[in-house]
Amino acid sequence: MRNVSKLPVRDQVIGSMSTIARVLWVLPLLAVVGCGPGNLRPTDLTPKEQQVQLFEKDEAPDCTLYEDYGSISVESGTSLSPGTFDSSKAKLRRAAAELGATSVRITAHTTVGKIDRATGVAIKCLKRPG
To answer: Can you point out the beta strands (E) in 40-114?
Structure first.
């Protein structure tokens, strides 16, 4: 008759429980690190995105004929790293480029806590016929 030991099974259960405990301990840390929309460096933009022009409310675009693509809003920052206006401007450029716009008129900029928010109107400059 064989002598069967129960110790390996008990060790496996204890090992599994300690693994579960480690995972449960790490999950809240991952949630804290990942809270917020994050930041985007202007150097991370594609050439097409970098070509999108930004201008303030009182400035005019380089063109007189344009198509309005509507309002776009972006946020930058996380619970650990504050958002920056440069990051929000980069995100405005990216969002406008995705729409096919060539410019963004920045209409609002605020910072609440560590989150930087920017809103603008995306437009596409058109060539005049003739």
So the answer is: 53-55, 66-76, 103-112
